Amino acid sequence: MNPFIPIVLWICISLPGYDSAGLKGKSLIFLTKTDKDYVKLNAADFSSLTAFTVCFRAASEESSRDYSLLSYATGANNNELLIWQKKTGQLTLYLKSPVVDISLPKIDGLLRHVCVNWESQTGVVTAWVNGRRSLQKVGGKGLTVKGSGVFILGQEQDKPGGRFDINQSFVGEITDVNMWDHVLKSTDIELLSQGCFSTGGNIIDWSTIGFTSGGNVKIEDNNDCKF
To answer: What is the DSSP string of 12-60?
Structure first.
């Protein structure tokens, strides 16, 4: 070897993710079936919930398996709150265990607005798609959702913040994720679906939420946002 030829070593460092804040006008793109890609949302602290509304826009062409749309895990229960899409088209709400299945138009390649609300005293669960309400169902009556947990998009948690299953991962686009500690009025949900309701959730506010991205999640401008 010529002693005057320099030797260059290339060292590749894979960063597990990054911390940032605010996703207004942004979409999360989960490109492939994997147990590596996720986004952790740093939601506002709460001790417990006896009601909530969760809304988001999502699109996915995954039709051959079930997958997670939103996963919230605590030390006491991995499925403290889980919104689950079945390959049959049903949306399942878990509150520690499955409480209701609601038959909705199956999520496909068209971005659509979905809301799910629940109230403990009556157990009434309602889903909304593009501002249109499902029938009301009853499940989880008398339950509470415990605080101090972890919110994850893109994966279903088998422990808080981890132990993901590749076969339960989300592949597609998700945006405008907001969560409130109460049931929104139907008129507000309709305005949300039209992009005319600018106030974010008081637990998850997509415009200001702090988050950590892991794996190869793409964060892209969402040109369809109207607000």
So the answer is: -----EEEEE--TTEEEEE-SS-SS-EEEEEPPP-SEESEEEEEEEEE-
Q: What is the predicted pLDDT for the residue at 58?
A: 97
Total residues belonging to the chain? 227
Q: Are 81 and 95 in contact (CB under 8 A)?
A: yes
Tell me what pLDDT residue 166 has: 98
End-to-end CA distance of the chain: 63
Q: Are 82 and 72 in contact (CB under 8 A)?
A: yes
Q: In the numeric block, which tokens belong to residue 7?
A: 């030797």
Q: Which residues lie closer than 8 Å to 130 by C-beta, 6 or more apart? A: 112, 113, 193
pLDDT at 223: 65
Asked if 152 contacts 38 with a C-beta cutoff of 8 angstroms, the reply is yes
Give 167's DSSP letter.
Answer: G
**Whether the predicted model's global pTM rises above the 0.85 cut:** yes
Sorted by where each starts, the structural domains of the chain and their CATH numbers stand as 18-221 (2.60.120.200)
pLDDT value of residue 196? 72
Closest CA to 216 of 6, 78, 71, 36: 36
Mean pLDDT of the chain: 90
